[in-house]
């Protein structure tokens, strides 16, 4: 997505004074829903361009740059300098430990978290399974490459960088790649759904922690902003992502190692499947655990508004689920797999 930022005016409820809320983002407007804007008296004020380190460094694989906040640091700097009041990120770009003074004030309803295959025009109608031997697949993700190598060993994987438009251009205008793998949510957000040839289910490729979800980051001290954005929380997404992030944090993982997850909420149960892989996918550990989240939210109407507040107990259980699954994999040797993967990635 093209980097950018915007500002909007918020007329506080209950007749409080006008306040200008400055929003920085590198994705898209989470407040584009007109009913939300009407409810809060919000109108677009102006656009402010922003770009991040991850947007600028295009000649190096993400896993080799060594910076944990590639797509968030500049936005957080603006937040710290009070140039903006909240920032919007792809949740998967946010480290599991935030800088002091910041917090995630809202996690929006998750889009499709799975990865998608986009084929070179000459391969239309094929799938990863039916592509010829030694076809080259482009991806910037160690997680995707490790899993898909394991599942489709006849394919070759090479790094591809750039924003979505750049990667699609590299695919279409050159003959370097038979296909590329991207996040389905990113393709949808940019209006490129028609290019999706195949969506990879969890049996082929589990997704990244937080993939498909947008997060609103705020200054922890700004209680009024926190209260405002809390209405954007999607309870199921919050609990799934807390479990995923707790799993990743306990493993001490990041973009430099292949870690994948798959979560579901069903019948008041939260299911978390997590896995770690060697770089070539030949060595892996994978397991599933679950926990009860019976009390997910309260639904109390106030002047026609239903504010869905996520149960603190359910959040605690989701976090514990992630930690417990990580500890289970660590007890089976996950640390050794990730250490070797990190060393090989650094050396290559």
Number of helices: 11
What radius of gyration results from the CA coordinates?
Answer: 21 Å
- Tell me the distance between the termini: 29 Å
CATH superfamily of the largest domain: Periplasmic binding protein-like II
CATH architecture type of the largest domain: 3-Layer(aba) Sandwich
User: Considering DSSP H and I runs of 4 or more, what fraction of the residues is helical?
Assistant: 25-40%
Structural class label: alpha+beta
Domain count: the total is 3
CATH topology (fold) name of the largest domain: D-Maltodextrin-Binding Protein, domain 2
N-to-C order of helices and strands: EEHEHHHEEEEHEHEHEEHHEEEEEHH
The CATH C-level name of the largest domain is: Alpha Beta
The residue ranges in which pLDDT falls below 50 over 5 or more consecutive positions are 1-20, 33-49, 52-67, 296-308
User: What is the general shape?
Assistant: globular
Q: Would you kindly provide a brief summary of this structure?
A:
Its cofactor is dipyrromethane. By secondary structure, this protein is an alpha+beta fold. It is built from 11 helices and 16 strands.
How is this fold's topology laid out?
Layout lengths: L3 E8 L6 E8 L8 H7 L2 E5 L5 H4 L5 H4 L7 H8 L5 E5 L11 E6 L7 E5 L16 E3 L3 H10 L4 E3 L5 H10 L5 E5 H6 L8 E3 L13 E6 L3 H7 L5 H17 L7 E8 L2 E9 L6 E9 L4 E6 L2 E6 L1 H20 L2 H14 L1
Parallel strand pairs: 2-4, 7-8, 7-9
Antiparallel strand pairs: 1-2, 1-3, 4-11, 5-11, 6-9, 6-10, 12-13, 13-14, 15-16
């Amino acid at each position: 997505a093209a980097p950018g930022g915007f500002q909007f005016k918020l007329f506080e409820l209950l007749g409080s004074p006008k306040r200008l809320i400055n929003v920085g983002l590198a994705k898209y407007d989470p407040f584009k829903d007109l009913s939300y804007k009407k409810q809060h008296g919000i109108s677009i004020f102006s656009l402010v361009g922003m770009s991040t380190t991850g947007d600028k460094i295009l000649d190096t694989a993400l896993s080799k740059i060594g910076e944990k906040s590639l797509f968030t640091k500049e936005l957080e700097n603006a937040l710290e300098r009070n140039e903006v009041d909240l920032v919007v990120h792809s949740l998967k770009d946010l480290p599991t430990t935030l800088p002091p003074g910041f917090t995630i004030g809202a996690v929006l309803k998750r889009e499709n978290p799975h990865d998608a295959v986009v084929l070179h025009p000459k391969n239309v109608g094929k799938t990863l399974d039916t592509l010829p031997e030694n076809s080259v697949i482009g991806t910037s993700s160690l997680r995707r490459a490790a899993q898909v190598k394991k599942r489709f060993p006849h394919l070759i994987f090479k790094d591809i960088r750039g924003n979505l438009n750049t990667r699609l251009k590299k695919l279409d205008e050159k003959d370097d790649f038979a296909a590329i793998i991207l996040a389905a949510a990113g393709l949808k957000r940019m209006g490129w759904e028609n290019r999706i040839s195949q969506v990879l289910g969890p049996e082929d490729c589990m997704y990244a922690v937080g993939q498909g979800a947008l997060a609103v980051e705020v200054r922890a001290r700004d209680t009024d902003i926190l209260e405002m954005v809390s209405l954007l929380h999607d309870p199921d997404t919050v609990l799934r992502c807390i479990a995923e992030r707790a799993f990743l944090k306990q493993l001490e993982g990041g973009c430099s190692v292949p870690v994948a997850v798959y979560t579901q909420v069903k019948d008041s149960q939260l299911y978390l499947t997590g896995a770690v892989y060697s770089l070539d996918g030949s060595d892996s550990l994978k397991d599933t655990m679950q926990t009860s989240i019976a009390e997910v939210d309260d639904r109390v109407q106030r002047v026609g508004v239903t504010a869905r507040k996520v149960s603190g107990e359910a959040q605690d259980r989701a976090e514990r689920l992630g930690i417990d699954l990580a500890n289970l994999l660590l007890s089976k040797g996950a640390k050794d797999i990730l250490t070797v993967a990190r060393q090989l990635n650094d050396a290559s």
